[in-house]
Design goal:
Elements (H helix, E strand, L loop, with lengths): L29 H8 L13 E4 L10 H9 L4 E2 H8 L3 H13 L3 E4 L10 H13 L1
Antiparallel strand pairs: 1-2, 1-3
Helix pairs in contact: 1-4, 3-4
Length: 134
């Protein structure tokens, strides 16, 4: 019994494939990101898990559409990674926008709530003794 033979593919005739079109909400080119982030591009020291909360309810008239969207999203605490995903913007662009908003005191950055890795030893011992009594 002979194994099946593979057939060689030949190149297709016709025009090359077109580049993927930008979907709704996506930015089609990097120049747009530069316009959104601004020329200076200063950044605050923000982590992916830093929580951002809005300090004002309504965006000021001078706010860009991206900043207004950030303020609407930050009514409840959200991480920078979540904001980046919701707005379909790169993390670096979101940090530049948030830096401007932090300086204008429109938002507040909070460190994430750290939970203890392990419960207290005395609590574990109390649970263990309670289970042994059963």
């Amino acid at each position: 019994m002979t194994p099946p033979q593979r057939q060689r593919r030949t190149p297709r005739e016709g025009p090359p494939p077109k580049p993927a079109q930008a979907k709704d909400g996506e930015l089609p080119n990097p120049e747009r990101l530069y316009v959104v982030a601004g020329a200076d591009g200063n950044r605050a020291n923000l982590d992916l898990v830093t929580l951002i909360v809005a300090r004002v309810e309504d965006p000021p008239p001078s706010a860009t559409p991206e900043q207004a969207a950030l303020l609407r999203l930050c009514a409840a605490p959200l991480s920078v990674a979540e904001l980046s995903a919701y707005l379909s913007l790169p993390f670096s662009v979101v940090t530049v926008l948030l830096t401007e908003m932090l300086t204008a005191e429109l938002v507040q950055a909070r460190a994430p709530i750290a939970r203890q890795a392990l419960p207290d030893r005395s609590l574990l011992e109390a649970v263990m003794h309670g289970l042994q009594r059963l």
